[in-house]
Each structure stands twice: as structure tokens, then as C-alpha cells.
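User: Show me an example of a complex going from sequences to C-alpha cells.

Assistant: Sure. Here are the input components:
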Amino acid sequence: MSAAATPTPQKLRTRKPLTVAAVAKNLGALVLAAVFVFPVYWMFSSSLKPQHEIMTKDPVFVFTPTFENYRTATGVDLFWTYVTNSLTVTLGAVLLALVVALAASFAIARLKFRGRKGIVLVVMMAQMAPWEVMVIAMYMISRENDLLNSIPMLTLIYFVMVLPFTIWTLRGFIAAVPVELEEAAQIDGCTRGQAFRKVIFPLLAPGLMSTSLFGFITAWNEFAMILMLNKEKESQTLTLWLTQFQTAFGSDWGATMAASTLFALPVLIVFLFLQRKAVGGMTAGAVKG
Amino acid sequence: MTVDSQGTATAGPQDAPGRAAGKSQTPPPSSGPKEVLQPPRGRRSLPSGVLPYLLVAPALLSMAVLLLYPLIRNVILSFQQLNRKEFITRETIWTGFDNYTGLLGDTDFWTVVVRSVVFTAVNVALIMAIGTGIGLLLNRLGKKMRLLLSLALMFAWAMPIVASVTVFRWLFDEQFGVVNWLMRTLGLSGYDQHNWFETGFSTLVIVLILLVWGSVPFVALNMYAGLTTIGSELYEAAKMDGASGWRTFWAVVFPNLRSFFMITTFLEIIWIFKAFAQVYAMNLGGPDRGSETLPVFAYIEGVGQFHYGVAAAISVLTIVMLIAVLSFYFRLILKEEEL
Amino acid sequence: MKRKLIAAIGVAGMMVSIAACGSESDGGKDGGKAAGGDKTLTVWVMDGSAPDAWMAEVNKAFEAKHPGVKVKVEKQIWNGIQEKVTTALSEDTPPDVLELGNTQTAGYAVTGGLADLSGDKAKLGYDAWNKGMVASNELDGKLYSAPWYAANRVVVYDKAAFKKAGVTPPKTRAEWIAGLKKLKASDPKSQAIYLPGQSWYVLAGLIWDEGSDLAVKDGDKWKGNLSSPEAVSAMNFYKELASYSTAPKDKDEATPQQSTDVIPKGGVSSWIGLGWEAGGAIDAMKKAGKTADFGYFPIPGKTADKPGSVFLGGSNLAVAERSKNKDLAKEWLALAAGKEFMTKYAAATEGALLPNTDSAQFKPAAGSFAEAMAASSASGKVTPVTPGWANVETAPNPIKDYMTKVLKGEDAKKAGEAADKVIDERINQQ
């Protein structure tokens, strides 16, 4: 555990006996947790219900769970192709974004150069890109360059989608690392590159994690681009699989919910894996703006 | 460390980075670290040369190719008549500003613009208020409760949009909705088949609940993270002064997390203003087009009717509006950047 | 420990980036071309259109006739299909054969994306085609697709409920309403009929019964016709029917899906649906441990001598203009939509779908859905055949909004005028 990696949380610990306020805040937290979890619970419980118990006049809370919906969901043709594609595209985009953003944000946060401010402005504006509408333009570009149904192309698009946010956040993190640390390393004989690798990089762990989480969610959920660009089933991803169970001939809600549950799992896993750092991360970057 | 670096960040010298650097064609970076120590506390004190440009080049290049270029193409499309026929035959028909004049002269368009702006404002205000509240609560909870609540938030965040919209539609369904059942169970009458999507307004309220529910986790978890960077001394000091919770927030939390609030609000405005799937899937912009926001309008008038040129024009107008609305933000953030 | 891990991730990231750049130039170029001069014929059909066994048989026969050709069938879902077909037709390697909804065919025909089949009429068996089904395949005297199958709606009823109320299948609108009254009296808690407010295909039938149409041609322009006296009286009859239903006024039959999500829960004595819907309801009830006992009758007409008009929904098969295998595609089309395989198709679907030729018709079992459907298919019609019609149908469909407004009490003429304005705007665009 690298102690330096996270700003040690210094919480306000109120060690008081049980008071009205303490009860109220814990109760409030419980209610809030219930409110936030309920739709998720409903998705999950519906995924375990037989079709006729999913939508009912009086909701069914007690039922015998069935895994039928999961079998339907995972039993579709090319399921594992979708999984592979989704993972390739998402991880590829996130990793690529991290590497490229790291370089750029280091320059923005640490170095003086003409046009720095302009770049900050570009990065900020880039977050407003109307990707959903740019689908048509992107489609035409891909069509002209024979890049339809291409996984690398999709990866690159997602990479650029998450890049601005990644640069934005990492920039904050790098700025938060005291220059003195780096200088000290350089005095010790490190080159600047070494100083970056050995000093700054480890301190960026939370930032890298939080931005990966965000990038992961964005790329993992992307729908509009893939719908338009990749018509061949072999090059599609899990987001399209999710909507596959809603057809004109009736929707298999159970399978839809089972698929959604499975779809949400990787995000949760990534979160739980990154949790400690990620939560601390996301804003330390923003905070240190 | 945290409080300290905070201080550095806000009290640093007001240099003008654009002017200072760039001219000196210093040799490659490896032979650099000689002049390092002059401004002991400055942030960007290292020598530069071409290195910064090399470092930002990949990012700029990829954004130029995959963001700027499509964006320019999009602008070009907005000056064309690009309906299904032209799209398939790959014909180019220039129509000048027709798409724009058509839109700007359309009262429906302006209704939608006003609706979108109000909708976004209410949404973002609620998201920020609730998110901040939950963030503060997280900071005050015990370890177990905090984990529980953050997990709940994370679950909500991880839920795919397709699923969350479907579930919300179920919850508020006229015939089989859980909410109607809950109302009936609570003994309220008139909820046997209450239609929650009766009007555009009621539909938007439900979309709002969905968006707030889906966006609060991001704000709350980050708010909490931000709070952990504020040293407890500051709280103690405020408490010693006898400040109320409310005053502590404005005196200690808010100033320290100013950037956080600014950037999160900035992002939420963009995200909510652009939200499409949640609004469209909830009730297809209905009833009677009463719940259409700008992206939904763009979809219905543009893509749905195969008027891609019009869709492009709407998106260009959307960007222009966003830039106008957020320009003061840009200035604020850029100012911060100079510090 | 962790630092190393993160460093490793960073390195991995860099390698990915190199790999991604390296493969950029040759990515996605290997579409469709098989080795050794063999050809692949790509066929897009909608999910649920063709029984798998039938499709396999067609392709087997086709591949036997054309050695070295492989047929690749790709099932599409209706969701977002218009965008998908539009973009596909604009590409250099579109699917060779596509299934198109019959209300949407004209919209594609006008774009030049579909191959002109006028010269292949003899090969395709044009003369034997069901006349009601041909209309949607032609535009300005040219043939752009072959009809494949069609289906129309009938009234599905719960035999037990009808028996209890002493109601027999009606032949006229008056009998129909009288029956609904009795049903309501016999079981006030049930819905005599489940009729959501936006079942606009049902309304179309009622308007046709009045001798009018959803839109009419005026010179060389089309105009919406919902404010016409005929449409107003049709809508008012719809409203009367809907008064026996508590179904949502602002939803169509698919939200929630009436067949699987509403009917199986009980409390509905009759409803208007298609063959697959009846089948879906029966299956869903079986899964829920209930048994369905459905009877079927054609939607009653104004008089007993002729059943009510119905929308003949269905699909056509077209060949893409940019197809690299146009001749093969036409051959495939001639085979699949020819009499031999249409006969097999009708049999495979047990008459739930009407084949494009009357002589291929499956003899439906007595009392079956197919029997009732066949009885009314002679009164089948399609929506106005003009490229702009597809625009009218896309969400938000003005006809649906019009229906909801009237059901909520607005004057039919006034609401019709508002809807006509939208239709006028959309229908004349291509």
C-alpha cells in the first residue's frame, strides 16, 4: 500500500453517544440507499422472474427464482464475440486514453509553453462534442475510408470520446503533486523522464483509476455509434445485445433484465476493484484545478 | 500535504504562461535540469522547448482527426439537403442556410429550446444540491453505513441506461406500475390506473427523477472524495468559532471545493443538456411532442424523418448555445488556470 | 507492489496503442469476400419472419442450383431498422436481398437504393401475385420488390366469457357493440374489449370502411384526410369501441405488449390482434399455468355481407441496387417467393401469414385464427402508397396523437385538422 498515493482521508469523526442526530443521519442513509438501489433491485429481481410475474397489477415480491432468463440471454448466437468485442473496445479505448492523456496533462500542468491556455480551452470544449449527432458525419467518414464494421476504428472513436475528460482529470492530479518532489528527484540525478516515472506516476494512481472508471463506463455503454457503424454482427458489442430481446413480436423482459444485470457486472467489478482509490480520485483532480 | 498544496494552487504567482515560454529553443529535455531551482514554489518551472508540444501532440492529433474533422463535416452537412435519397445516392445538394432559417423560424424549435434550458437548469440544480447533500452525509457516516450508501450509489451508476429507462417505465406504468400499486396500498384513491405520462410536464418530471437518480452518484461520490481532502483542522476551527453547519459549509467546504463545484456543474450541464436516450425512450417525446428536449427534437426532425442536414444544423445550433451559456464558465476556469 | 502493477498497466496501454495504430490501415476491409471465387449472397430478414427450417430448405435448394454460392441469412430486429436499411443501401457492399415492411417499401424505392425488377416480372411470377399485396411493391409503374407475406388483424375472444354473456361472434358493427354491452353487463370487472388508444391500424380499417383513406392525393400532392367527415365518423366509432376498454389511451398495442403482457393476466374478453400475437398470448398463458380458449372472428363490417376492412401488414423482398450479385439475388428472390416455397411457407406458418399467391394458401383449420384472417383478407388494404408515407409513420406518429386527443375528449374534426397539417408536411417529402 503506497501511503503517498492517496491523500490520507481525514474525516471528521464524531464519537458521540447515540443522539437524535446520529439516528437521523443513519436512517437517512438507509432510506437513500434503498431509493438508489430499488431500480437496480427491480432489474435484478425481474431477471429472475418468469415472464408472467414481471409486469403485474400487484408487484410480485416473493417468487421462485429461475435462471431461464440468463440462459436465454447468454445463449444467443455470437454472445462471446460480443463480450470479446466489448472488452477489446472498452479496454483499448481506456488504456489508450490514459497513455495519451498522461503525456498531454503533464505538459499542461507542469510545463510552460505558448498555446497552453488554448489547449486547456480545447480540452474543455471537447467535452461538449455532440457525439450522438456526429454519428452521421462519422458514418460518412468511415464509409469513405472503408472503416465500417471495424473494431480498431470503434476503439479509436471511444478513445477520443473519453480523452478530454481523462486529460482534464489527470491534469488536476499532476498539478497537485508538489513540484519539490520532482525537483528533489532530479537533484538526486534522475532525468526528467525518470523523475516522472518514479515520482509523479505513482502519485497519480488514484487519478488513473478514477479516470479509467469513468472512461470504462462511457465506452462500455456507448450505443449510437456502434448501431450506425458496425452492422455486421461479428463486429458488434454488448450494448446491441442488450436491446436484442425487445422485438416487434413481444419483448422478452426477463432476458432483457438478465442481460442488463450481466452487463452492469463488469462496471461494478471495476468499481469494487478501484473503489478505494477511485472515489478519492475523481475529484482530487477536479478539486486541485 | 493536501491543505498545503491547495494553498500553493491558489496563491501561486500570476504568470502569463503564453508569453513566458516558447521562445527559448532549449536543447532536448534530458540536459535540462540546471535552472530548476529558481522559482522555488512555482508549478511550471521546468524548462520547455519542444517537449510540451511533443507531449500534447498525440492528444491534439487524435482529437483533430476524430473529433474536429467529424465536427467540421457535420457543419458542412448542415448546409446541405441530405435526406434519405441523397444519402443513398450520395448526391450533394447545397441549400445554403435553408436548414438554419427553417429552424430559427420554427416556433416549435424555440419552444423546445426554452424547455431544454429550463429542464437542464432544474435538473442540474437538483443534482448538485442532492449530490452535495449526500456527499456531506457520506462524510459524516460511520464506516459501514458509508460503504453501504456508496455501494448503493455505485449500483445506480453502473446500471445500464437501457435497463434503467425500462425499469422506470415499469415503475410508472399506467396498468402495472409499482408506483400506482404503492399509492393504492397507501390508501390513496385515484391510482387504480393513474397515467403518470399524461402530459409533457409529468413525463419530464419522471425523466427528471430518472436523470437525478442516475447523476447524483457521480456528484455525491466525488463530493465525498473532495471532502476527504479538507483537513479536519478547518472544521475544528469553524466549530470552535461556533459556526453552524450551514455556515461551516459556506465558510469551509464551499471555498475549498470551489473548483469541484464549478467543474462538476459544468459537466452536469453538458451531460443533462445532451441527454437523449432517457428522454426519448421514456415516452418518445410525447404526449403530443410535449416532452421533447433539444436532442430528442434533433432526432425526431432529423434522423427520424431522414433529414440529416437538418439534424446537423440542430446540432450546430446546440453547440453554439452551449458555448454561449457556458462561456462565463470557460472564463472562470481559464482564470483558475492562470494561477 | 501496486506501483509496479500500475506501471505494468501503463506499459500494456502503450503496446495497445502501437497495435491499434498499426492495424488502422488494414482494419475492416475483409467484408464479405470469400476465397476461391466463391460468392456469398447476404439476405436480411426480420427476426420472426421466416421459420428457420423453411429458410434452411430454401437456401439448400438455392445452393444446390448455384454451386459455389453460399447464402448468409442475417436476422434483423425491427428496432431502428429504417436507419439501418438506409445506411446499408448507401454502402458499397449492401446486403443483396432485404426484407422491407410493406408500408416502407415506397420510401426506399424512390431513393434509387432498390434494384428495378420490372424486367423480371415473368421470372418472379408477377401475374399470380395476390392483387392486394402487389400495390405496395410498385411505384410510378415500376416494380421494386416482390411481395412475400402479409397478415391482418382479427378479433380474438375468450370463448368462456362470450358464452357466459350469451354473445356469439358478430357480423355487423351494431351486433358487435350490442355484444360488448352484454359482455360488460355480464362481467363489469372485465374489459369487454382491450383496445389501446393508439391502435392506428384498426382505425385505418374503420376509415376504409367509410370509403375513405388516411391521406388522399390532390393533384400531384398528398394531403392528410383525418379531418374528413368519413374519418371523423370512423374515429367516433373507434371511440365507442374504446369506451368498453380501460386500456391506456396514449399507448399502442405494443406498449405494453398486449399479447404477452396484458391478455395473459386475464380480465379481457376480447382484443384485436395478429396471428403471432394470438400465438404469443397462448404461449404466455401456458407458461403461467393457464389455458387459453380463444375464438376468432373477422372485424365486423358495416353490413353483414362484407367483413370490415383491415390493414394488410406484411413484408416485401427487394434487391439492393448496389448489390454485387444482383442476378443471383433475383434468382434467390424468385425461388423464395415462388409458388413452391410460398406453399411450404404458408404450411410452415400454419396459415398465420398469407403467402403472396392465393394458390399457395394453406387450408386453415376450422375455428383457427388463420380461418378468420383469411375470411377478412379480401377486404385487406395498405396505407397510401407514396414514398412520403414512411415519414408519416415514424414517431411521433401524428395519427396516434390524434387518436389520443379524441379519446380524451377533443373534437375529432379539430384534432384531425391539426394532424392533417403534420401529415401534409411529412407525406410530400421524400
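The lines above are the inputs; the final block is the predicted structure for all three components together. Chain C has two domains: 39-150+313-373, 154-311+381-427.
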